[in-house]
Q: What sequence folds into this?
C-alpha cells in the first residue's frame, strides 16, 4: 500500500483552511491543519510532514516568519506560500525566503495541484539542498556550526589558541574533542610545528611510558634500540593526550614533572632532556570525581585544567545536524562514486529527532551507511539505521519502571515529563497529553506542580 504524502495547511481563515483540507484529501493526500505560524512550527517539530502549504497574511506570525522558523528546524521541508498578490515582487520575496513556490488567491486548483505534485515528486529538495551547500561553502572544518553552543566554543578556541596555556577538553565520546585540539593547534603560534597525538587508554602502562618519554636500548624486553618518545617528536609543537583520565597514577607523576619544568627522562636513562611542548588533554570522564575517588592526582588536574573547554553533545546542538550530514554525504558520495545529493523530509526529520548517544561519530557512521544503501539521489528513512528509524516522536522517559506505582504517580510523572519537554508550554503539553488546558490546570493543582 502506497503511503499518502502528509501535507500541513497553515491558514488563520477557518473556512479557507477547511476547504483546502477537504480538497487535498480528495487528491489522496493526508492533510493536517493549524491556524497559526506558531502552531505550524510546533507541529513540524512533533510530526513528520512532506510539505507545508502556508498563507502569507496571518494576524500573528506571517507566512514568511513561519517559513523561516520551519526551515531553521528542518530545511528539507518544501514550503508553498499562498498570497493574494501576484506581483513579481512578491514572487521574488517568496523565493528569496526559501519557499519552494507560491500560488495566488483566489486559488487556481489545477495550478495548485500541479505545484504540489512537482514539489513532492520531482524537485522538492533541489532548492533546499542548493541553499544548504551554499551555506556550507568550502568549509572543511566540522566544528563549524550555527548553534549557540558551537559559536561559544569557537569563540573560546579563538581566544585560547594564541596563548601557551595548557587546555583540558572535555565531552562525551564521539563529540570531536580531537578536532577541537587540532583547531587550537591550527590557530596557534605553533601551527607550523608538529601536532602529535597519543591515546592514553590504548596502551599498557609500561608501553605508554615508553611511547611518551622514549626508552634506551635494552631498557626492557624487546627494546633492541634507543627510541625517542612523543614528547621529543612534539618538541616546539603540540602534544594531544587523548583519554587522559585513563592514565595510570604512576605515570601521572611523570607527566606532572613535564608540566612543571619541561623535563623528561627516557625509560632506562638517568639523563634529563628539556622539551618545549604545549599540552592539550582530553577526557570523557569527570576528572573532579576521579580526583575524589583517588584515581587522578589533584595537582595534575589543576595543572591540566588551566583552560577548560567542553565540547557539547550532538543532542545539545541539533541545529548543526543539517550542516554536518550534508558535509558527510558529500564526502561519502564522492568516495563511493554515488550521486546522492541530500535527504527526504522524513529522513531529515528522523535525524533531527534522534538523540545521538554516539554523537558526531555515530552520525558520521550512519551517513556512510545511508550513502552506500541509497538507490536514488536522496536518502530516505529506509536507508537509516533501525535505531534511528525506531525513534519515538518525543522520546520522553516517563520512568524506569511502572511497577509498584499508583495511577496518580504515573499520571504525575507523565505530566512533569511532558511539561519539561515543552519548556512549560501548557497548551502544547495539554495537546500532547490529549486533555484540555483546563483539565491540565486542574491536575497541576492536584499534584502541586504549578
A:
Amino acid at each position: 500500500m502506497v503511503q499518502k504524502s502528509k501535507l500541513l495547511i497553515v491558514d488563520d481563515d477557518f473556512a479557507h483552511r477547511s476547504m483546502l483540507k477537504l480538497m487535498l484529501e480528495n487528491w489522496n493526500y493526508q492533510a493536517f491543519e493549524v491556524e497559526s505560524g506558531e502552531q505550524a512550527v510546533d507541529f513540524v517539530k512533533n510530526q513528520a510532514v512532506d510539505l507545508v502549504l502556508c498563507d502569507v497574511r496571518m494576524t500573528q506570525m506571517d507566512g514568511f516568519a513561519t517559513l523561516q522558523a520551519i526551515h531553521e528546524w528542518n530545511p528539507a521541508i518544501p514550503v508553498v506560500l499562498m498570497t493574494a498578490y501576484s506581483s513579481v515582487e512578491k514572487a521574488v520575496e517568496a523565493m528569496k525566503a526559501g519557499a519552494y513556490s507560491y500560488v495566488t488567491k483566489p486559488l487556481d486548483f489545477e495550478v495548485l495541484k500541479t505545484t504540489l505534485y512537482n514539489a513532492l515528486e520531482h524537485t522538492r529538495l533541489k532548492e533546499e539542498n542548493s541553499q544548504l551547500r551554499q551555506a556550507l561553502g568550502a568549509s572543511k572544518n566540522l566544528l563549524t556550526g550555527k548553534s549557540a553552543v558551537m559559536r561559544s566554543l569557537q569563540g573560546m578556541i579563538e581566544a585560547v589558541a594564541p596563548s601557551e596555556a595548557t587546555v583540558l577538553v572535555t565531552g562525551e565520546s564521539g563529540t570531536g574533542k580531537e578536532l577541537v585540539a587540532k583547531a587550537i593547534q591550527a590557530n596557534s603560534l605553533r601551527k607550523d610545528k608538529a601536532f602529535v597525538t597519543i591515546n592514553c587508554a590504548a596502551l599498557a602502562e609500561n608501553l605508554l611510558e615508553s611511547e611518551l618519554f622514549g626508552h634506551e636500548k635494552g631498557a626492557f624486553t624487546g627494546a633492541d634500540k634507543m627510541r625517542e618518545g612523543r614528547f621529543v617528536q612534539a618538541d616546539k609543537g603540540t602534544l594531544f593526550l587523548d583519554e587522559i583520565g585513563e592514565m595510570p597514577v604512576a605515570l601521572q607523576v611523570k607527566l606532572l614533572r613535564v608540566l612543571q619544568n619541561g623535563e623528561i627522562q627516557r625509560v632506562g636513562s638517568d639523563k634529563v632532556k628539556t622539551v618545549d611542548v604545549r599540552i592539550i588533554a582530553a577526557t570523557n570522564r569527570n576528572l573532579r570525581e576521579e580526583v575524589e575517588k583517588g584515581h587522578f592526582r589533584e595537582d595534575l588536574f589543576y595543572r591540566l585544567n588551566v583552560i577548560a573547554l567542553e565540547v557539547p553533545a550532538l543532542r545539545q546542538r541539533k541545529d548543526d545536524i543539517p550542516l554536518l550530514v550534508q558535509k558527510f554525504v558529500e564526502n561519502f558520495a564522492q568516495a563511493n562514486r554515488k550521486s546522492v545529493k541530500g535527504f527526504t523530509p522524513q529522513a531529515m526529520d528522523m535525524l533531527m529527532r534522534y538523540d545521538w548517544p554516539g554523537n558526531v561519530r555515530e552520525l558520521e557512521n550512519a551517513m556512510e551507511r545511508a550513502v552506500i544503501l541509497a538507490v536514488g539521489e536522496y536518502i530516505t528513512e529506509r536507508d537509516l539505521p533501525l535505531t534511528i528509524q525506531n525513534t519515538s516522536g518525543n522520546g520522553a522517559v516517563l520512568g524506569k519502571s511502572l511497577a509498584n506505582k499508583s495511577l496518580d504517580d504515573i499520571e504525575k510523572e507523565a505530566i512533569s515529563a511532558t511539561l519539561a519537554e515543552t519548556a512549560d508550554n501548557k497548551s502544547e503539553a495539554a495537546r500532547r497529553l490529549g486533555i484540555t488546558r483546563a483539565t491540565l490546570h486542574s491536575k497541576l493543582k492536584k499534584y502541586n506542580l504549578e
Q: What stands out?
A: The chain has 20 helices and 16 strands. The mean pLDDT is 85.
